[in-house]
Amino acid sequence: VSYVNSSASVKAESDICCTSANAIQVVKSLVNDDTILMTPDRNLAQYTQRYTDKKIVYWEGFCPYHDRLTPRQVKKVKNDYPEALLLVHPECRPEVIDLADEAKSTSGMLDYVRKSQHMEFIIGTETGIIHTLKTQNPDKLFIPADEKMICTDMKKITLTDIVNSLLNISPVIKVAEGIRVRAIKAIERMLAIPRD
What is the pTM of this model? Predict the structure, then answer.
């Protein structure tokens, strides 16, 4: 099982892909397998392990921004905002997830906050989500669990880049046909799993 943001080459070697939102369903769907190799994020794999009876062997990779959040930081911000619910991403360390009120994917956090009657939230994921949360829920308070959880890779794409890409249909990304054919199978298997 490989995380969907892995390279095409990794997907080509995978049986199926997953996102942080569907990792549990993906692993549970593998009914003929008792042991699962999950890559590249150890924290997402350990989170998924909590909700399945499969043995998950995981790659020792991690998201450097989610992995940087520590229990000490979380305890401090929870102490500073005792009424706030702590929402963290499944790519956070297990000991951080243990302190959270909820562990949710990015889309899961947006949905949870929208439906919640609660008014204060500590957000333990990439800080860019806070803009969207504030826009969708202007009456609620959002506190970053760590203001330095800023993904420099996500910030590389600008609106100008998007406009230029759409206007010029570039850059063209080329994937070797043999890799493409094998990688698409892992993606299609993931997409075939019913959503909750």
Answer: 0.92
